[in-house]
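Q: Structure tokens for this one, please.
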Amino acid sequence: MIRRASPALGLLLVGCSVGPDLLSSSHLAYNEAIHRAQHEEFLLNLVRMRYGEAPSFLGVDAISAQFEFEAEVGGEFGLVEGESSRFGAPRIGYADRPTITFIPRRDEDFVRRFTEPLSVETLFRMVRSTSDVGRFFGIVVLRMNGLVNRHLGGSPDFERAVALMVSLYDAGDLRIGFEEQHVAASEPFPSANVTPAQHLEAAKLSQRIRDRGDGSSELVLTGSVPMLWIRSGTPAGAELRALLGLRADLETFAVREGQRDRSEEPRDHIAVELRSVGGSMQVIAHAIEVPEEDLQRGFVMPDAVSESVRTYFAVHSSGPDLGEPGLRVSYRGHEFHLSDADRESKRTFMLFAALLHYQVASKAGQRAPVLTLGVGR
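A: Here is the predicted structure, written as tokens:
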């Protein structure tokens, strides 16, 4: 007796195997498409800023994909005794109809995060996670203990200080990190009046009650303070201390937001002013090469970027796309190209795109208005 498989069962088994494969391939395809679109948008906004125009951001909020399957099978049944029935091969097709929801990133919270100065904590976290002192201090820092970044026409001493920091960091003679410190936040009060519930309540507020040892206690704030450690006894360390006006007898210096006059006495801390994400992008944008005719016609200002930034980032204006690997966007009839072989520029691009996402894009709260596109066949 000959057993034959049911055509319907065959289609069912094929469908079960096709579904997961489609999910995997479509997920990766959407991921790759969004990844490239976000990078192209970031590059396009840098080019816009080079031309003195405002950037514009469009976030992908949601993707809904609907799959439609079509299945068909044909066959012929033999009526003559001894002949076997013949079945045609099943034909299976599917259609993918995604719905993509976009959100214009222009709400008040987004604009505030894009334009407000970065915090020292954010700067230090980015440096610690990437070990890239030169890029972040050379681009993000506006002033440091009275030294002005050359992007504002300041002294070359700033670039020298950053170069010394890079060499000391690479040699292990400079460290960037955080130190936990406790600051009194109340007047002393009798320790006998403190209850366990008050200890718990203080802990919820990132505070603690500290016994002063004289029968009294005080409420203290506990926080991580950004610190810069410079090893003593090295010529580079001594030069850096002199440039920043730091005390020669100390190795550890707190880093704070604020200004400092260079005429002040040597200090035990470093005062810095930082750029915003938008301001940092503006610095990078000045390293973009623009066509000569646009310069001559006054469409863009001559670049005022320092040579140190040029070593970190370069985007070239070019002719038609000839298939060279890299990232490319069109603007005002010109092509702007970030070469895949330029590792320094790619690293700068990646780090500041990540900084934008960390500081701004990932924290945008407003969800309206939205643009929803249904993509048909």
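A few notes: The chain has a mean pLDDT of 81. Residues 117-178+227-275 form one domain.
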